[in-house]
Structures are given as C-alpha cells and as structure tokens.
Amino acid sequence: MKKVDFLSAAFLLALAGAPHLAHAQAELAPWGNLRGLRVQGQLLEVPTSLQVLPPGGRAAVVTAHERQRPTYTRQGARQLVATRLDSLALRETVEDTGAGQATLTVQATNEAVRPALGAFLSLGLPPAAYAGATVQWLDAQGKILATKPVSALPDAVPAARQVRIASATRQLLVGFAEPTVVQLRPDAATKEPALYVPLLAGSLAKGQAAQRVITLKVSGEIDRAPVQLTLNSAQPGRAWAGFGGNFRLQNPKADPQVIDYCLQHMRVAYGRVELPWKFWQPELGQDPRAAARQGQLAPHVRESLELAQRLGKLGMPVIVTAWNAPQWAVVGEQGNGTGPGPDGKWGAPLNQANLAASYQSIADYLVYLKEQYGVEADLFSFNESDLGINVRQTGQEHADLIKALGAVFAARGLKTKLLLGDTADANGYAFIGPALHDAAARPYIGAVSFHSWRGWNAPTLQRWADAATQLQLPLLVGEGSIDAQAWGYPAIFEEPSYALQEISLYLRLLAICQPLSILQWQLTADYSPLAGGGIFGNPVPLHPTQRFWNLQQLAATPKKVAYLPLTANRPAITCAALGYPTTGTYAVHVVNNGATRPVTLIGLPATVKLLQLHLTDQTHGNQAQPPVPVRGGHARFTLPATSYATLTSE
C-alpha cells in the first residue's frame, strides 16, 4: 500500500477546521429525514419524515429521496435542511446536544390554500427495534397520562410534554416545549408504527405558520460482539482490474485541479469520458473530421479528446460515452437530464431516418481519436438511455443499436465494442433483455454495465452478475455512488455518513456482482471527492475528504487479483476479498457500520504470515496501522467504530 503521510496530515488539518465531524451523532438525510442517532458508533434508528396528509384517504405527500429539491448545510453541530411539500415551505434544524441526544426544530409556512388533515412530523418505531414496546404519554413532571402497546390502533390520547417508548432493547424519549397531542398510528409511507407530531392542524390556510421544537434521547443495547470473517481462497471468481473514474468535463475552472489530484494520488485503472456529439457534428451533412483537421474543433470536443489521450497514456482502458446528441440525430427535445419533458418522458429517441448518418458520425469521432490522439476506445455507450439522459431508447432499440453500430465500428477497423446496458441504475435490468438474448448482438458487446444510484437489493444486483456470466463478459459499474441528486446539496459529500454508505455499497457490489471495475462518478469537480479549491463555493485550499481516502484505499488493491468468497457472521459488517493464490497476494476489505469490536479472520493460506492494515474513518485517512500477524491461517485485529479497513498480504 502506498504511504500517504503527507496527504493524511492534510486530511487531519481539514478535520481540525471541522470539529463536528469527529463527534457526529445525528444522521440526517438531505431531504429532511432523520435516520437515527449514533451511540458509540452504532446507529440507533429514529426514522422521521415530514408529511402532509390530504383528506379523503389520498396518498400522503412525504419527504423522501428524489421527491423534493432540498438544500442541505452544516453549521458545527447543527444540520439544516430547507425543502417543500406541496404548498408547504419547511426549514428543519437538527442539533447534536449530547450522547444519544438531539434537538429537532421544524418551521413550517404554508403558501397557498390546501385542504388537508394537517402537516405532521412522523417518527417511526421500526419493529426490529421496538417490537413489543410500550408507549407512554407523560406530563412535564414525568407523570404517566396514558399507556398503550406499540401495536395499538389510532385512538384519542392526552396532550403530553413527553412520549416514552421502551422495548426490550431500545428506549426513546421524545420531548416538547408545550403539551402536544401525539398520535400513535401506522406511518403513511412505511405502514409501520409511528408517532405523528402535529405541525399544522387541519386544512392549510395561506400564510399559516408554526414552529415545533422536539428533543430526542435514545439509548439501547450496543452490539460489540466479536466478528468472524471466513475466507475461501480456493474458489476464485472473476477478475478485478482496479478502481476507475468518470471524467466528464463540466466545469472548466474547477475540473483540472481535481483530475490532477486524483490521477496523482490514486491508482485509476479504468476511465470513462464524453463524446460531445452535438459539438462534434452540429449539422447533418458536415464532415466533422475534415473540419477538425482544419482547426475547427469546438473547445469542449478538443478538451474531451485530450483527456481521453491523457487517460490512454496512463495505460487504462477508455470508455467513450455520449450524453447529448446533435438535434438532427434525434426527434424532439432532449432536455437537460434533470427531469422529464412536457410529454412526461425523459430525453429524445434517435431519428430513425438519420441512423446511418448518426453511426457514421460516432465512428468518425472514434477514428479521429485513434488516428490523431493515439487512443482507441475500448467501449462505447449512450448514457442511461433506458431513462433518457439524454438519448432515450427501448430495450429493442438498444439491441438494434448494438448490432448496427457495432458492425460499423468493425467495418471502420475499430476494436471498440458496445456496452450492454449502461443503465441509470440496477433496477433497469429489463432493458438489456432483448440484446442479452440476441445472438446477433453478442459479437459486438464488450461488457455489461449498470449505474449504482438505485436498486441495491441483493437479488437485483445478482441479476447483473448473472447476465455477465451468461455472456462470459466483464461487468462494469459504469457510474458508482449513492445519490444522483447530491449535486443539489453538495455539503453532504463531507458527511462521514455519506462516506460510510458509499464505501459500504462498493463492498456489496464487489461481493455480489464481481465487477471488473467500479467507475466513480466523478473524479472531477462534479460530485468531487475533494473539498475546497472553490468547488461548490468552498474557498479553502483543495484537500481530500473521507470519501477520497475511502476511494484511494479501495483503489490500492493489488493488481492481478480475482474475487474470493468472504462472509461475516455479524450484522453491520460489509466485506469483500480479492486475491491471487499463485502469488500469495490477498486483499480483504471490511466496513464496520457499528461499534468497535474484535475481529478474527480465518481461512488464510498457511503461506500468509503478515497482513498490512490500512484504516479510514473520521480521523484516519488511509493510514497504515500496526501489521497484523497471521498464525495458522487466523488473523486477529480490532475494527474501530464506523470505519473502513483493508488488510493486504505482504
């Protein structure tokens, strides 16, 4: 593993300027939903949402991922969210106030007349933590006013200053500044038991406003049980080429510094760049190669070509992807990729009358890239064409494209093949069906690809792994990360919770999908793993975040390894292993999403005597820890709370 003392010092310096990070407890989603409070590293669930309940049994309007356009910021121990529900403007502040304690303040202002049953904060009581719980309504002195089982049906309850919920393993105390009628009822979204705290009662009048201050105190059993990791080094799976990155240029001022930093301080093994097609050939009938040779390249085209050349010179395979198309190549408006058009659909389909010209134009670009810049693209795709960002296709049109465009590439002497899928998320699996079962498409498919924004359940991910196995081709995660809307609330990128969720997903992808590479979205200023340097308006010097250290640590996995089965016997542990038994090279990646606990790794070959441990958490940036001795195939070490650890054989 590469030494990173200087960079780690920069990371610690950044932490010194943000002391809240090392003590972050409340985990708040940028759209306003509290996930819970961490106590000694373990997340004790206190799930909340803001809701407007319409009359007549109509569906509630609920704060949720990708349902609103919120803003999110942090000020020390406070997290602030501003969002909207229908006509309701909401401002929410969550402040850490002590161990397992937080204060939640919600301000609601209604801006139009709306019939409603009211606006509420729903505080969920998930059965995993609160099965068999008792709910008590208390006055200011702690006197019990009413008691009900958590499974009780909605019923009249007294106004209370506190509500206490206690199960065998969890205790939660909810407090209010004044007596409040808090109902116990099924949550409108999850259908699980929840406390409904009123914000605005009844139909909403224009200009109606209210503020509610809620205190939370949670405690419960902390899982510190020892963990056993079991490795099977005798069953290698598919190969891992290394960590990759997307390099779509969108910010001429800020992109270069991030690209330079990432390429200098991280082993990037795969690259994906843009074909700026609408600038390459804006008019039908043009000869774009002739125009380029005459010095008429648009700046964005030239910069994209030069970036592909830079990646190629570093020895990495290059994927070329088109997001937009020239207007002559599509029917209708493509949109900007942030929402559907007036017809309710995203993007625009290719113009069938101009398909031959479209194929020639794309091939011209790839030939020009090869001849003038010395880079032959390994793979080509339209970005997320199942959704329409910004070219939209059906599954059958995708299959037809692969066959027709693949044949054009071959006829032009290009080795470039097509990505099957490159879908907006794993849920888009059905999109690849026609091509997957079309023998005529098979010669032109170079790899299978999906993006990791959604669809994380194991059965869905397994379908992608099975598709790659069926075709005997590599699987790529063409865009890797966890929140496609995060560009709208970029402060979330510096939250430890975001970093932990992202790397946890990556290890799940490794273990289930066995991809050839995961290509981070992005290694540019867009969704940047670095902070400062003017990115997102942050004027401090450019520096790595916890996310960067996670990515660097994963990217430092030794070369020429294959996936190995690795299992953990405890929850809140995510793990994956890679190795090459012939050389004795092994890498074990582990994320601990809970409290500090001892770990025993078993199943290592007798030839392995020592493991180097690297750690990333809120205070360590891919830092080397004392080596871990291996005796009889067993290694024992301590896994700190909410951390990412990598062990590699010497």
Task: Report what the structure shows.
- This protein has 650 residues and is of the alpha+beta class.
- The protein has 3 domains: 197 residues, Beta-galactosidase, Chain A, domain 5; 86 residues, Golgi alpha-mannosidase II (Immunoglobulin-like, Sandwich); 303 residues, Glycosidases (TIM Barrel, Alpha-Beta Barrel), CATH 3.20.20.80.
- The protein contains 12 helices and 38 strands.
- This is O-glycosyl hydrolase.
- Keywords: Signal.
- It comes from Hymenobacter polaris.
- InterPro entries: GH (IPR017853).
The top-level CATH class of the largest domain is: Alpha Beta
Report mean pLDDT, rounded to a whole number: 94
| Count of the separate structural domains | 3
- From the 3D structure, determine the CATH topology of the largest domain: TIM Barrel
Task: Report the helical percentage.
Answer: 10-25%
What is the CATH superfamily of the largest domain?
Answer: Glycosidases
* Shape type: globular
Report the CATH architecture of the largest domain. Answer: Alpha-Beta Barrel
Structural class by secondary-structure content? alpha+beta
> What's the gyration radius in Å?
27 Å
Discrete helix count? 12
Distance between the termini: 9 Å
Proportion of β residues? Answer: 25-35%
- Largest sheet features: 11 strands, mixed
DSSP, total strands: 38
Low-confidence residue ranges:
1-23
Question: How are the SSEs placed, and which strands pair?
Answer:
Blueprint: H1 5-16, E1 26-28, E2 34-39, E3 42-45, E4 48-53, E5 61-62, E6 71-75, E7 78-85, E8 88-98, E9 101-110, E10 118-124, H2 127-130, E11 134-138, E12 144-149, E13 160-166, E14 170-180, E15 183-186, E16 193-201, E17 209-220, E18 227-231, E19 239-240, E20 244-246, H3 255-265, E21 270-274, H4 277-280, H5 288-293, H6 299-313, E22 318-322, H7 355-373, E23 379-382, H8 395-411, E24 417-423, H9 433-436, E25 445-451, H10 458-471, E26 475-480, H11 496-513, E27 517-520, E28 530-531, E29 543-544, H12 546-555, E30 561-564, E31 566-568, E32 573-580, E33 585-592, E34 597-602, E35 610-616, E36 623-631, E37 634-639, E38 643-649
Parallel strand pairs: 18-34, 20-21, 20-27, 21-22, 22-23, 23-24, 24-25, 25-26, 26-27
Antiparallel strand pairs: 1-2, 2-3, 4-5, 4-10, 6-7, 7-8, 8-9, 9-17, 10-16, 11-12, 11-13, 13-14, 14-17, 15-16, 18-31, 19-30, 28-29, 30-32, 32-33, 33-38, 34-37, 35-36, 35-38, 36-37
Helix pairs in contact: 10-11, 11-12
